[in-house]
Amino acid sequence: MFQTLRTFLLSKARCWDADSQRSYQDLFEKLDTNKDGKVDVAELRAGLKAMGIFRQGAAQKIVSSGDQNKDGSLDFNEFTKYLKEHEKKLRLTFKSLDRNNDGRIDASEVQQSLAELGINISREDAQKILQRRLYVCSLSMDIDGSMMVDWNEWREHFLLYPEHNLEEIIRHWKHSSILDIGDSLAIPDEFTEEEKSTGGWWKQLVAGAVAGAVSRTGTAPLDRMKVFMQVHASKSNNISLVGGFRQMIAEGGLTSLWRGNGTNVLKIAPETAIKFMAYEQYKKLLSSDGKKIETYQRFMAGSLAGATAQTAIYPMEVLKTRLTLRKTGQYSGMFDCAKKILKNEGVKAFYKGYVPNLLGIIPYAGIDLAVYETLKTTWLSYHPKDSANPGVLVLLGCGTISSTCGQLASYPLALVRTRMQAQATLDASDQPSMSTLMKKILAKDGFFGLYRGILPNFMKVIPAVSISYVVYEYMKNGLGISK
């Protein structure tokens, strides 16, 4: 991970001296190429590119942050105010890194700061961040040859970058749960303090929920096929993909492929909100003295938040399964289904399969997070120059593979959960426990019987991730979330 920070810090930006002729006024005039007294996004983008510090979305973010009158550009007063406010934030970040208050940042301080973000690197790796020239300007070096960065160098380098702290730099590689694959076991998103204070977090949650709704609707036929095979397929009743679709269409028509999708979409919003709020609270409980949360604490907080959200919305999971498997005319809708379950089976029926579902969160979230971090580290080691901006395909690839590995680990528990949810009887003797049901599946169908329906489940991953990402980006633009 040190490559990410190094690439960001060591970008080939041309130095400019704020204390010489390149003052705010001179910088503004240089950027204002059409001399209309304003700097718009296009001019700022061209200026940043010419200075060698162009970053995707940086110009838009700077203009959006400083544009007080909302005319889509910055006049000199807005430009100056933005730079001064940004400089204050840079000063706070510099002070947080300068642990010994000597006015310079050295390798040990970089190492300590990254460790508090949950990124542990060696002293040698921390020195590598500072050993290359940070700017075209020369830097002073200490006796043992390690380089140090003073306030002026830090300020000059970061003044025209919208990011001002390590968390924002590193969150390029945030493992985002907006990549919706239909399973609600991923660790929630993390947001910066700026996003929390400005309200940007709720816009991202809304964008993610809409993206999830569209994604699940687009892949609903494959999801129904998965559930159908989980419950009905066996060695004696081998259901093929094509045969299963034919059977469902023959029984209920083409629209029957979307049975249960309404409930699956409806539960996204409450589950997302509960998971996010619970995650924030668990993080506070697990991290002491306001320190940054580490990876294992993030995993624990995410797992607990997932368990909390699942407990609250689990009855909807049962309804989704029943509606997905229903025959034509069996239920008129979600409320009718709930009414009949309550009347015929009692309240306990709404929590059938709850235990395997809860246990499934741990292997899914743990392996998903571990695989993503491994893939990220591997990619960074081979592509250090591109690490600060890996690109959409790399991020989607890492997220897709890690989520798929998480599913592989938790799928047997998901299958047992679905079978327990599908059982409709009041007779306690007909209700096998999780372990009993798993033993029966192993005895009857062997080990691979625990993976019935995994083919359509895998088939939906790539389209689900692609749809959710595209819709999420469109929603972000529509809601005015700057990149």
TrEMBL record:
Keywords: Antiport, Calcium, Membrane, Metal-binding, Mitochondrion, Mitochondrion inner membrane, Repeat, Transmembrane, Transmembrane helix, Transport. It is found in: Mitochondrion inner membrane. Solcar repeats lie at residues 199-285, 293-378, 390-478. Residues 19-54, 85-120 form the EF-hand domain. GO terms for molecular function: antiporter activity; calcium ion binding. It comes from the Eukaryota. It is a multi-pass membrane protein. Monomer. This is EF-hand domain-containing protein. The gene is LOC115437917.
